[in-house]
Predict the structure.
Amino acid sequence: MFQSTDQSRFMMHRVVLLAAIAAVFPIFGQQPPGSPTILFHLHGSNTIGAELAPALAEGFLKKRGATNVSYKPSGELDKGMEIGTMPNGEVVAIEIQAKGSGTGVTDLANGTADIGMLSRKIKPEEKVQLAPLGDMEAYGAENVLGLDGVAIIIHTSNPVSKLTVSQLREIFSGQITNWKDVGGVDGPINLYSRPQASSGTYETFDNLVLKPAKLSAAAKQIENSEQLSDAVARDPSGIGFIGLPYIRSAKAVSISDGVGKPLLPTVFTVGREDYRLSRRLYFYLSPKSTNLDARQFVTYSLSEPGQAIVQKSGFVSQSVRIEKTKKQVGGASPLNLTFRFRSGSTELDNKAQDDLNRLVEYVKSLDQSPALLLIGHADNSGPEDINVKLSKDRANAVAEELRSRGITIAGTGGQGSKSPIASNETPEGRQQNRRVEIWTRM
């Protein structure tokens, strides 16, 4: 039996414990009366979900008039809620789980997610898996949130400044194990990787670099982006790959595929998708979804305020900019937008359709109308006369879309396959080369 003082102490501890449970319980697990109303569930990529998704959720709630907006972690890594109080006093929340791109697809399929966050494009087999939700590649279902570059990072003391894709493949597959073999000092190479099982960053790296080779068993796999970057920054022998915002204290190296010049992942090289390891970040939302809050959140994320948050979070926004420091051609400067197409056609892809509207808004915001020049490019598949025609047709297709929106085009042209920015030996390189660039004279 407890003595009276022990019993009082026990009761006091019990009250404190119950209060602590009550503070957490409304957010996680079953939700008793008075818990936040969850507007929608946002699951998937750690690259997006670690910082960008909470920042977008905060901006979205504040735009709706919410106050006391804050992020409440669950105590479980990469899981939490953005919570705020609406003007009518209702407490609402956006639930975020950032366990990897693969989990975004799985949770869309099983109905536990309203929006899937993917740091890569949905796979053909995943499209089939999600077919009951509608065509997930349709406009409005597949939404490009922003752009990212998979940065190759090393220790700041490492003298290596550039690598080719083939060198990266040999390093991460374990064929090259000493830094002296790629221009560094004599010493072992320590590998750091995102998880193979669920990471969209890993899948992008696998598709753009590794295949057909396999990741070395010696690679240390780390789930959290920041932890991986910091591990490389502490290891003079280390090398890893990470999303653009997570370079942190490490050093990024320039990458080439042996055809284009080595490029660092910058706002401009990634924004035009010229950087060899550029990638798109996606929100996937079922076209059959009746969750208006989720759909409005996606619209907000693609808007100028949302894109400002994308940029502030360290990714590359899709807001239109002129690169005035780049070498000018005929007195013209390039815009950061590059239009790309659905495979084998002159039909613009989903991002390009949104970019048309962004370009129109940009032109209308200027004091004077710029002279826009559209230059089409093709890969080297087929005879060059066909490639030249296709590149011109693509430039003209973009021009017609812009003219239909009231924008004057100064001229169009086609370069065929003679100005590649990537190797035509891979599907990814050919996709980069099939493009329409926009130049302007102000």
The radius of gyration is 24 Å. The longest strand covers residues 37-44. The chain is about 35% helix and 20% strand. Residues 151-264 form a domain with the D-Maltodextrin-Binding Protein; domain 2 fold (CATH 3.40.190.10).
